[in-house]
């Protein structure tokens, strides 16, 4: 079986290609090279996806997206190009090749007024990022597909040369620097390794429709930060509680976009609790000597 992964060099993409390593997996990237061979260098914004079509994939996992929330708000045309127009072309390729399409989406399709969102709950994005990802969700419904929503992904690998929140926080605390973490924004932090194994199982089982694959714990950024510090034996007093109204973000954020993962609990690789995931993160980091250099 041939699996094509777009965004294969990203935070989720790098772990996804590892999860499918016993298949013929082709990672598609533009700037950040994936850990696959073979791979395909392709600028998806050109909307010329014939090179993907020529691979005759059995499965397409579309993980590429513009995920910078403020950049999406400032440059809505770019967000629409990368998150909607590219997805439309991916759908066309899926139709022509009869490939099973997996679309990676986000908890930001919800407005965050209550949290613990189920797959069937009404969507109502509050920013351009969430709106364009929701439009992508609607496009993929026209083909044999699975929409996977996740929340606050993190892991032991940087994404496109940038540290994710967990790595950034660990380095700050290791250096003895103070950091701010929100007490009033709640999500479902998701370890990318756990996510990729759940995704692999969902693809193998050809689950269709919408599925929430995220961490089992629903916590604030502040709670997440404290747990991370404790897991790595770092000084948690360096973490300052902060609030939404203190942030100078350009785009609005949902306050509680946490995801209900009851359906995913039927998988063999179940959503991890926060402590389970952080223990795994520490194991990965210590095994690869990533943070402490």
Automatic annotation (TrEMBL):
Pfam families recorded: RmlD_sub_bind (PF04321)
One function term, GO molecular function aspect: dTDP-4-dehydrorhamnose reductase activity
Keywords in alphabetical order: Oxidoreductase
UniProt cross-references to CDD domains, sorted A to Z: dTDP_HR_like_SDR_e
Gene3D superfamilies referenced in this protein's UniProt entry, alphabetically: NAD(P)-binding Rossmann-like Domain (3.40.50.720), UDP-galactose 4-epimerase, domain 1 (3.90.25.10)
UniProt-listed InterPro entries: dTDP_dehydrorham_reduct (IPR005913), NAD(P)-bd_dom_sf (IPR036291), RmlD-like-bd (IPR029903)
Residue ranges occupied by any RmlD-like substrate binding domain in the UniProt entry: 1-281
Keyword Plastid: no
Source organism: Metallosphaera prunae
EC annotation from Swiss-Prot or TrEMBL: 1.1.1.133
Protein name, entry field: dTDP-4-dehydrorhamnose reductase
